[in-house]
From TrEMBL:
One GO BP: xylan catabolic process
GO cellular component: extracellular region
Name of the featured protein: Alpha-glucuronidase
Keywords: Carbohydrate metabolism, Glycosidase, Hydrolase, Polysaccharide degradation, Xylan degradation
Domain Glycosyl hydrolase family 67 C-terminal, first and last residues per copy: 462-684
UniProt family annotation: Belongs to the glycosyl hydrolase 67 family.
Pfam families linked to this entry: Glyco_hydro_67C, Glyco_hydro_67M, Glyco_hydro_67N
SUPFAM superfamilies according to UniProt: (Trans)glycosidases, beta-N-acetylhexosaminidase-like domain
GO MF, any single term: alpha-glucuronidase activity
Glycosyl hydrolase family 67 catalytic domain sequence ranges: 135-461
Domain Alpha glucuronidase N-terminal: 8-131
Amino acid sequence: PLEEYDDCWLRYDRIDEGDRPASHRRYCQHAYVSDGAPELGAVRDELRRGIGGLLGREPHLWHHPPRTVDGFLAIGTPDEMAVVRDIVAVETVESLADGGYCMRTGRWNGADCLVVTAPTDRGLVYGTFHLLRLLATGRPIDDLDVIEEPATADRLIDHWDNPFRKSVERGYAGQSIFDWELLPELRPRYEDYARLLASVGINGVVVNNVNTQLPPRESANPAHDELEGWRLLETRSLEKLTSLAGLFRRYGIRTLLSVNFAAPMRIGELDTADPLDPEVEAWWKRKADELYERVPDFGGFLVKADSEGQPGPYEYDRDHVDGANVLARALEPHGGRVWWRAFVYGSHEDRAVQAAETFAPLDGEFHDNVTVQIKNGPIDFQPREPVSTLFGAMPETNVGCELQITQEYTGQGVHCCYHVPMWKEILEFDVDGEGTAVTDVLGDEGEGIAGVGAVGDDYNWTGHYLSQANLYGFGRLAWNPDLDAETITEEWVRLTFGTEPAVVETVSDILMASWEATIKYTTGGLGLMHMMDNGSEFLENHYDPSPEEWPGYHGATADGIGVDRTSAGSGYAPQFRDPVAERYESVDTCPEELLLFFHHLPWEHELEDGTTVVQRLYDNCFEGVETVRELRADWASLEGEIDHERYRHTMERFDEHVEHAAIWRDTLVSFFYEHSGIPDERGRVPRA
Ligand code: GCU
């Protein structure tokens, strides 16, 4: 049914009778689904689509318990359905967090029955998608006893979409899928987007860019400059927002907005946005009331303040607490939340130390309905960074982790770079050396994970077809960070390309190897980063190599390379808790993959296996490109095994990926040689 765009991992292609477990038909021809909430309409539609597609016949949807059939599905909350209560104890269901669900098989009234139940309607949506995932990946369903709960309460997508301009900051998949000129009229695609998100457990969408005011662009339509992100908070836009929020609600997704801190002046008539001014306080309250009157489940505000040209409380000599709390007080009576970003700059030469220095002293002062949203690392979504020290430094504050799904620094729309293994490394990181992982820090009500979106209006949604796996994996990991990368990957491949074992293995292996390769040819693999071209005011880059542009990030000199971030240097290492701090502080214990992030070392410093730093940098750059060549060859082996369209699209990307990775390699190898004067001992010469 989806023609103008791909259906991603919700393909629901027919599985031949002989290839599918008999239990699929036994339980899925009849479904009894409770009534009422909008989410249940979504459940019913999805059963029709999913079962209709996979089994070749839509289920009969019952409005009361079927007593004349010998197998059926029952989907509802316990208070609505006796069959549910008979098969799953009410206390079990009620003990689950919002979004959690149970799936269990049993016998009822002499028939086989599969129950999907949850304490909230949103949980029923997730349970339904889980069931359909089992069907689509060919798993039997006759002996199920599943209890699922999200690990973290809020699992958000942050769109960096510029409304009205339709562009997407750091987006590589075409224009924004949201058409604010057309809204409140809805495009069918919004619903399919909501389905994709709900199917992996996403429960919130911030619809606009954190940069709610942008520098004017020469090429842009001047009329569009008038219509920037901050304007979505204007009364005239709220009808549009209301319409979109109503659609998302069906899938258990709350809508949020990025707001401009100076809104009381820009939208309102005030001459200040001072957070301690009573009129400013009253303005935000009125605005929140107005919003909630239309969107009662509105999720809240995301704010980028005092960073990269966005206004904030500093203008009035106030701090981030004052700024966040005035918004929080306005949202509080309605159950809304402020996501206040910790991505800030300051006077420090090394910006890595800035976020913790600014925010750690404010621990405990934010309102309960404020979440401090921290990027995974201290720099900016680099191919590999150490984890942000802030995760261990704000025990009395609700914190959120911001990851980037879009591939700003990992090859954009061209390179295949699968982020799930990177996110696993981040989420599992032990912040105190006592086994407290980043995910443990995110476990309370009001905490969560936000992913910077990757979706645009391209046919395939994400630009590079394989980048769909990053969106899928983000949702699955946000829901359950304990899932291993291989499991998520295999799931995605089976849903996307079918269950043929050779295809599953080849595509999974390609994805799993891609991130390490990217690290190697874009950084040399020892913790260097940000050696990319910054573009210009009118052209966003971060794609091509340009290592001379930002000397502060790599610290290359004639005698060595790397940045001293120990206590003798910029002081990032000691911001960690001991013993983590100690591990990074010493050259001997610092892990090799982050060595040059924390230490400035002589080019000929010997690594553990006796190889010198400069030689390892060369080796890694060459190896990274070699791996990409192999991945390209592996992809080529899929010709005829998958449909030609997707085969060809990805093949073309791989052709360009190999070329561009080689450009990276050659630029970095020349750069290392120019600074060190030490040739590659294996005599490899970069192309001119
Ligand atoms: C990066 C990115 C910007 C973005 C900023 C942010 O610097 O390149 O486009 O606005 O992060 O996260 O606020």
